[in-house]
Write a structure and sequence with these properties.
480 residues, alpha+beta, seven-stranded mixed β-sheet, four-stranded mixed β-sheet, 38% helix, globular, binds adenosine-5'-diphosphate, binds 6-deoxy-beta-L-fructofuranose
């Protein structure tokens, strides 16, 4: 049988890439066509994404990819571009770390209590959920002019094809979707004054999303027709689709700028206990639910490295491995770490506030970050199992953090479970495989996972030591 090629555009908060996946019955090979920085820009009006440079990176990537059978796009969640009545972009998309949502949730909850909002949408509280962003933007000139809202991958799809849609897995991060029906929650939108006609019709992974426009073919040197296929356009949905698990008893941690740690379920968990633990019910492939917690992730390290003038990462990780274990930990789920800037200082303040030694050298700070992430991974994996009543025997780590072997080992130690690390480019692989599935090359979700397990290099970490040390470290963090 023929092997086909698919281009996956995967935009993370720290970098964008265009990957080419070759897929056949026993073949799955991924190569990088192009990688480019994703550098947000601070304007007088706030923190913005440089979406034109990202689009230019996509075009460069498609040119480098050459002949492909289809293209799929995924990116980080919640953010969007607004179009005017002519379909032109209104301003630069606002970054989810922008300060405009400070204090907004409280206003929303005055109209609809947080508990009701959770029961209706299953979404964790995060200040950047699209719902809060739209509320923050309510009286702006820009929103008044807007006739269409496109989430980031849908915006790029529109620029590539001229066609508009709203992909469901990513739409589930807006807090305007009912996870039980996989459709808009008109009740929530009406109550909070959100105009759902701003959104284009829903599309699901596997749906066609148009053909590359003639001008795009010209600019990329490709020969048409080249279809764009809807994938799980939320990067985390694509990454979870590419977890190479062989049965259902697994937890996953998607590590990159964020750590997204949790379970794949067949139905949402909408209990009050789940809300209190701040677990989210985002949608995955085929009506699955991504039941997970957002943990600050390697953002903590990225921001420290920026403050330290970008030291060599390998050197830092070597020093961190040699630094004393579990000396100080911080709550890696705490929103105090969300905004950019002053990261080493904020970590020091958190250590001080919880009566722990302040890490001194960059190696010690890095160790504190990795211990804290492993601890947060442990807590999320434990809480998810308890809240969902779904036990696991292994933890899969996918994403950029799989390259951090110390983090993988510490996570195994903290969870007291074997960790299977890989693939690193899980989001791109999930993107490719959903395109391949739409074209009949692979079967269901389990087939996708078996193909990954057979073809991708994976590393196994066995838990070491006593998990009591981690329980003791957790006890130092009295705040939640
Ligand atoms: P995102 O998709 O959110 O932009 P990635 O999945 O690309 O993030 O992961 C980026 C992170 O992966 C970096 O912040 C870094 O900490 C980690 N990483 C990348 N390369 C290496 C490496 N060679 N060794 C250890 N960690 C790495
Ligand atoms: C990871 C991610 C995560 C969201 C955040 C905004 O890239 O998509 O799942 O919560 O970005």
């Amino acid at each position: 049988t023929a092997v086909r090629s698919y281009a996956a555009v995967d935009l993370g908060a720290s970098s964008g890439r265009v990957m080419v996946g070759r897929v056949g019955p026993d073949t799955l090979e991924l190569t990088e066509a192009h990688r480019f920085a994703n550098r947000p820009v601070r304007l007088p009006e706030g923190l913005r994404w440089d979406v034109l440079s990202l689009y230019a990176g996509v075009l460069d990537g498609l040119r480098a990819a050459g002949r492909v059978d289809s293209v799929g796009i995924d990116s980080w969640a919640v953010d969007y571009g607004l179009l005017d009545a002519d379909g032109a972009l209104l301003g630069n998309p606002v970054h989810y770390r922008d300060a405009r949502t400070e204090g907004v949730a409280e206003k929303v909850w005055a109209s609809m209590p947080a508990a009701e909002l959770y029961a209706a949408t299953g979404l964790q509280y995060a200040p950047f959920n699209t719902l809060y962003q739209l509320t923050a933007a309510a009286s702006t000139a820009q929103l008044a002019q807007a006739r269409r809202l496109l989430l980031i991958p849908d915006l790029l799809t529109y620029w590539l094809t001229g066609e508009q849609g709203t992909e469901l897995t990513n739409a589930s991060t807006t807090q305007l979707i009912d996870p039980r029906t996989g459709d808009w929650s008109h009740a929530v939108a009406d109550r909070l004054g959100i105009d759902l006609t701003l959104f284009a019709p829903l599309r699901r992974p596997g749906d066609p999303a148009g053909l590359l426009r003639d001008r795009v073919l010209e600019e990329t040197g490709l020969t048409g027709p080249v279809p764009v296929t809807t994938v799980g356009s939320h990067d985390t949905a694509s990454a979870v689709a590419a977890v190479p698990a062989v049965d259902e008893r697994f937890a996953y941690i998607c590590t990159g700028t964020w750590s997204l740690a949790g379970l794949e379920l067949t139905a949402p968990v909408l209990t009050e206990e789940s809300r209190a633990a701040n677990f989210t019910n985002e949608l995955g492939l085929d009506g699955t639910v991504r039941y997970l917690r957002n943990i600050m992730g390697l953002w903590l390290l990225q921001e420290c490295m920026r403050a330290w003038d970008q030291p060599d990462l390998a050197d830092l990780l070597r020093d961190a491995a040699a630094a004393p274990a579990l000396r100080s930990v911080v709550d890696a789920g705490d929103a105090v770490f969300l905004a950019p800037g002053r990261m080493p200082e904020r970590i020091a303040e958190a250590c001080r506030a919880s009566g722990q030694p302040v890490p001194g050298t960059p190696g010690e700070v890095t160790r504190c970050i990795l211990d804290s992430l492993a601890l947060a991974h442990r807590r999320a994996v434990e809480d998810a199992q308890r809240l969902a009543g779904h036990a696991v025997d292994a933890v899969h780590i996918v994403g950029g953090g799989t390259r951090n072997t110390l983090l993988c080992q510490l996570t195994a130690d903290a969870c007291g479970l074997p960790v299977v690390a890989g693939p690193t480019e899980a989001a791109a692989l999930g993107n490719v495989l959903v395109q391949a599935r739409a074209h009949g090359l692979v079967g269901d979700r389990a087939d996708i996972r078996r193909l990954l397990a057979r073809t991708q290099p994976l590393t196994r970490y066995e838990p070491r030591g006593d998990t009591g040390r981690w329980r003791e470290a957790q006890a130092r963090l009295t705040t939640r």
